[in-house]
Amino acid sequence: MVNLSSKICLECGKSLSGGSDKRFCDAYCRNTYNNRRKSDDELHIQSINRQLRRNRRILKTLCPDGKATIRRDVLEKMGFDYRYFSGIYEAKLRYYLSYDYGFAAIKDNGKEKALIIQKQNYMDDYQINPWVQ
């Protein structure tokens, strides 16, 4: 039998009670320990994924019916970041996708707008070849 009184939390050093496989005293210590161990690269990837999810959430909010046109400044005020997208779909316009929602930059009467779309199944067949212009 394992002597639990000798087990301590890997993060804060408090004595542990409970199961023999317990390594942390609570969820806060577990998360703090694991976050500290992550590399800078992993944290950068998490930051990009967080922005991709935010972009998708914004597009989905603004496009409840599958297609919408929104002024560029509305997207920017909501925190949309144009630098991050998960894919490209080209038809008559170039759509920058954030998972299953995307936008194309358009001008309407001289005003910058975004044509927002929800991804359709036929778009999955699109093959990107960066060497063909």
Unreliably modeled segments: none
Strand content: 15-25%
Q: Round the Cα radius of gyration to an integer and report it.
A: 23 Å
Spatial order of strands in the largest sheet: 1-5-4-3-2
Distance between the termini: 68 Å
Query: What characterizes the major β-sheet?
Result: 5 strands, antiparallel
Described by the principal axes of the CA atoms, the overall outline is: elongated
- Derived structural class: alpha+beta
Helix content: 25-40%
Order of helices and strands: HHEHEEEE
Verbal overview:
The protein is α+β, with helices and mostly antiparallel strands and 133 residues long. Helix content is 30%, strand content 23%. The chain has 3 helices and 5 strands, in the order ααβαββββ. The protein has helices spanning 27-37, 40-62, 72-77; strands at residues 67-71, 87-90, 94-98, 101-108, 111-118. The protein has a 5-stranded antiparallel sheet with strand order 1-5-4-3-2. A hairpin with a 3-residue loop joins strand 2 and strand 3. The longest helix is centred in the middle third of the chain and has 23 residues, at 40-62. The model has no long low-confidence stretch (mean pLDDT 90).
Keywords:
single chain; 133 residues; alpha+beta; five-stranded antiparallel sheet; 3 helices; 5 strands; elongated
Secondary-structure map:
Blueprint: H1 27-37, H2 40-62, E1 67-71, H3 72-77, E2 87-90, E3 94-98, E4 101-108, E5 111-118
Antiparallel strand pairs: 1-5, 2-3, 3-4, 4-5
